[in-house]
Structures are given as structure tokens and as C-alpha cells.
Amino acid sequence: MRKTKIAIAVIAVLALLAAANYAFNMDPTQLAARGVGRDAHSHGDEHEDEEEAPKPEPVVPLGPEDAPVRIEVFYTRAEIYHTDFEPLIQAIYEDYKPHVRIEPRDLGTAEVRTQAMALPLHGAQGLAVNGEVIKQLPGAGAFNMVALLGSPQDRRWSPDMLRAFIEHDLKAKGVQFTPPPPPSGVEAGPQHDHEQEHSH
């Protein structure tokens, strides 16, 4: 009789251990579906907080589709585009319209990620000007090259560098345009040598 009780106790302990192990390894989505971890006062709407948060404004292209300069902006989230890229991109568009086309590229989509992986961006944020992420710029670094990786806040490239690339491509295509005046308070960088080179 005693052996029977011990056997039953061992089986009960093993069952409890198995149940605990199952619960520990269960997919969090399965646990949530069963109500585990849900607030007792919740009415089952998992998206209550998400619905209250304001949605970011849509990211839209700028400029004509046949513009001679096409700037693709690769970003991870709409919020990042609006805060990090949009102020500069809007200024660039105003300076060079109708000669530029701004095309936002959301890295949250598989097609755009594949495109960014094929470029020197390697799937990360950055810009491509007429399909090129790495551009020549005399006086920039040891190899006179600049990679448009990251956002303007990363300071791997400057707004003046981007303007130099745009003006270089416009001149190479024979497009007549009026260069915008340099912004006040902006430090002169190697791009000015680039502009002087093409002004002769």
C-alpha cells in the first residue's frame, strides 16, 4: 500500500513538472490567446493602446517621375522618415524642383529590403542618387568617395554633399538649373571644391 502511495505521489510530481515545462516553453502568442498575463479588467481588446496612438502621416513621393535626378530614401519607420529625413528632403526638393524626384522606400516591406540588400546599404537606412549609394566627391576622404549611409543625423554625409551630387548629375545630363544660395551658418566642406571644379 505504501509503495502505491509513493508511486502515485511520484506520478503527480512528474505531471506537475511536465505541465510547468509546457507552460514555460509555450509560445507567448498562445499564452496571450488563453488570457495568460491579461489584465483582469481588460475586455479582451489587445489593440486598445495602439488604436489611441496617432498614426504617422503617410510618406509620399515628391516631384515628376521623369525628373533627371531620382533620390531614393530608405527608412525603417514612417516616424523616422518624418523626423530624420523629411526636413532635409523637403528643402532639397524646394531647391531643385522640378529636376528632382524623391521616392521614399519603406524597409518594412520585403521588396524594398531586397533592393536595399542589393545596394551598398546592405538593408540599412540611407539614400541612393540615381541608383548610386557611393558617389565620387573630390576632397572627401582618402579615396574622394562618400557613402550615403544612414540618416542626416548620423553625419556620415552632409546636406551640402547631397547637393553637390545632385548638381553634378544635373550638369552631366545637360540640365539648366539655378543653384540655390548656400544656407547661412553651414560649414564649408569639401563639396565646395567639387562645385568650383564644375564652375570653370
Tell me the structural class: alpha+beta
Strand order of the largest sheet: 2-1-3
Could you give a short account of the major beta sheet? 3 strands, mixed
What average pLDDT do the residues reach?
Answer: 75
Number of domains: 2
What series of H and E elements makes up the topology?
Answer: HHHEHEHEEEHH
| Shape verdict | globular
Cα separation of the termini: 106 Å
- Which blocks of ≥5 consecutive residues have pLDDT under 50? 9-34, 36-40, 185-200
Fraction of helical residues: 40-55%
DSSP E strands, number: 5
Annotation field: number of helices: 7
The radius of gyration is 28 Å
Binned strand content: 5-15%
Structure explained in plain terms:
This protein is an alpha+beta fold. The chain has 2 domains: 1-31; 69-182 and 189-199. Helices cover 43% and strands 12% of the residues. It has a 3-stranded mixed β-sheet with strand order 2-1-3. Strand 4 and strand 5 form a beta hairpin. Helix 6 (159-172) runs parallel beside helix 7 (191-199).
Condensed summary:
The protein has 200 residues and is an alpha+beta fold.
Q: Top keywords for this entry?
A:
three-stranded mixed beta sheet; alpha+beta; globular; 43% helix; two-stranded antiparallel ribbon; 200 residues; 2 domains; 12% strand; disordered C terminus
